[in-house]
Amino acid sequence: MATGQAVGGAAQGRLGPLAFHAATLATFFAASAAPTPLYRIYGETFALSPVFVTLIFAVYAVALLSALLVAGSLSDHLGRRPVILSALLLEGLAMGLFLMVHRGPGWLIAARIVQGVATGIAGAALGAALLDADRDRGALVNAIAPLGGMAAGALGTSALIQYGPLPLHLVYGLLLCAFAALAAGLWRVPETAVRRPGATPRTILAALRPRVAVPPRARRALVLVTPINLANWTLGGFYLSLVPSLVVSATGSPAPLTGGAVVTALMLAGAVAVFLRRAVPADGNLAFGVIATALGVLTVVAGIHAASVPVLILGTLLTGSGFGTSFLGCVGTIMPLAGADERAGLLAAFYVQSYLAFSLPAVLAGFLARTLGYGPTADLYAAAIVAVALAGLAGLRLGSARDAAAR
C-alpha cells in the first residue's frame, strides 16, 4: 500500500492528505451534531413529542452503523477517493433534505437516514485514508476529529440559531457549501491506497457483507468492558438527543447557545481527554474514565436541580473527560488482543454494541421524558449510567484480581 507521504510529493499544488481528510472527517461529524440544538425548535414548530425527537436521533445512529458495517472495506477495493466522493455527494443530498424540513417532520427523518449512511461510509473510508497517510498521527486524528467536529457543530449551530437569520435553514446551507468545496478539493488530494488487484463485481459484493466476529482471545475482555462501554454511549446518546431540551426545562433559559454550550462541553472535554491520555495504559484510562463520569454525572444532576448553567457545564466537562477516556480505555483493552486479520471484525462487534447503546436508550428516554418530564428522566438516567459504569469497573477489578491469583 502506498503511503500518503510517497504519493503526496508526486505533484505540486496538491493538498496534504492528512490535513484534508482530518478536516473532512471533522466536517462530517460537525454536520452530524448540527441538528442537536435544533431539536427543541423542531419540536415546537411541528408539535413533536420527545419520543419522535429521539426517534429522529436513533434512525441516524442505526443508519450510520449499517453503512459502517456494510461499506467498511469498500475503499480497499475501489480506492479511498471514489468512496469519499460518494459519501460527500450523499451528505450534500442530506443537507438538501434538511433544507426541505419546513414542509414536515418526515423530511427530517429522511435527512437523518441519508446523513447516517453518508457519515458511516465516510467514517470508514476517511479513517482508512488517515492511517494510510500517517499511521501514528492518523490514529490520533481518528479519535479526536469526530469529537472536535461534533463540538464545533453543536456550538456553531447554536450561535447561528441565536444570532443569524433562517434558523431552520442557514446552517444546512453553509454545510452544503462546505461539502461542495470538499468534493471539489478532493481531486487535489493524492490517492492514499492502492486498489486490491483483481477487483471484480463479485469481490466487491463480497466486501459488502458485514463481518462481525470476536476473536476467542478478546471475548473475555470485551465482556468485561461491556458495562462501561454501554454506559458511556448511552450517556452520549442522551446528550445529543435530549440535553438541549432538558437545559431549557431545568434552567428556563431558552437561548440556543446555552444548550449548545452544554453539548459542546461534553465533546470538547472528550477530545482533550483523548489527546492528553493517549499514552496511558488502558486499565488506568478505564478507572479514570468511570470515576470522572460518575462525578460529572452527579454534578450535572446537581446543576439541573439548582437550575444552574455554570454547574451544568462544570459537570459536563467532568463527564466529557470521562466519556473520552472511557472510550480510549475500552478500545485499548480489546484491540491489542486481535490479530491484524481479526481487527476489523472485532471493531465491527464493538461498534454494533456501541451504536445500539447510543440510539435505543435515547428512544426510551423520549418515552420517559413524555411521561415523567425531563428532570426525573435525567435523574433515572444518571442513576443507571453511574450504577452500570461502577459495576463494570468493579467487575474489571475483580477479573484482574482473579488473573493475578491464578498466576
From TrEMBL:
It is found in: Cell membrane. Its main location: membrane. InterPro entries: MFS (IPR011701), MFS_dom (IPR020846), MFS_trans_sf (IPR036259), MFS_Transporters (IPR050171). It is a multi-pass membrane protein. Keywords: Cell membrane, Membrane, Transmembrane, Transmembrane helix, Transport. Pfam families: MFS_1. The chain crosses the membrane at residues 49-71, 83-101, 107-131, 143-163, 169-187, 221-243, 255-276, 288-306, 312-334, 346-368, 380-399. GO terms for molecular function: transmembrane transporter activity. It comes from the Bacteria. This is MFS transporter. It comes from Methylobacterium oryzihabitans. The lineage of its organism: Bacteria, Pseudomonadati, Pseudomonadota, Alphaproteobacteria, Hyphomicrobiales.
